[in-house]
Fold 1-acyl-sn-glycerol-3-phosphate acyltransferase.
Amino acid sequence: MLYRALRVVVRPTALAIWRPEIIGTDHVPADGPVILASNHLSFADSLVIPLTSPRQVAFLAKDDYWTGTGLKGLVTRQFFTAIGSIPVDRDDTRAAQLSLDLALAHLREGGAFGIYPEGTRSRDGRLYRGRTGVAWLALTAGCPVVPVALTDTDKLQPVGATLPRRIRFRVEFGRPIDFTGRFDGVPAGRARRAVTDEIMAAIHAMSGQELADGYNERAPEQPTA
């Protein structure tokens, strides 16, 4: 119910304010399991994609969003629940596999799941090499992958900014890629690498970003006073 209310009220309001360029929504299957694999430029990306996608898309989110207290905690908890976010404990030593297991369960229920193969947002605007978790999901769930290219969302909410700016951004949904049967008999590691590289090539073809040589690493935590 709350998700529908957000779609009816928040979505048209947000689209009217920011007027994003949205391309290829017809490429997103109307139902059934699907992975939306996107480049990652800003914290706002996990809000931008659900707002512009024609169907509800779940992303993983740190479980801190569900443990806040007071009115702010209530609003945050309700919001992330409403947009379909899946809580995960990032401090768990098994966090990486747990995240994939939660995503797989969502896909097996017929949902749409959003993922950033780069692992974390790009701090220099380049497109980094994809990690193979997205391929493991696609091959294990047997579902298509829709590549997504975001442009200028880093200007929408730059690192360190607490509120989004009124910047026009672009979201492009590419044609779904179906890997069914294409890697039968191929060693698992090689298949996952090939699938991931194909997804990243599709994202790059739409985003036009400069390619980085290696993987993107999460920024170190800043010490607190």
Summary: The mean pLDDT is 88. The longest strand covers residues 145-151. The two ends are 41 Å apart (CA to CA). The CA atoms of residues 71 and 77 lie 10 Å apart.
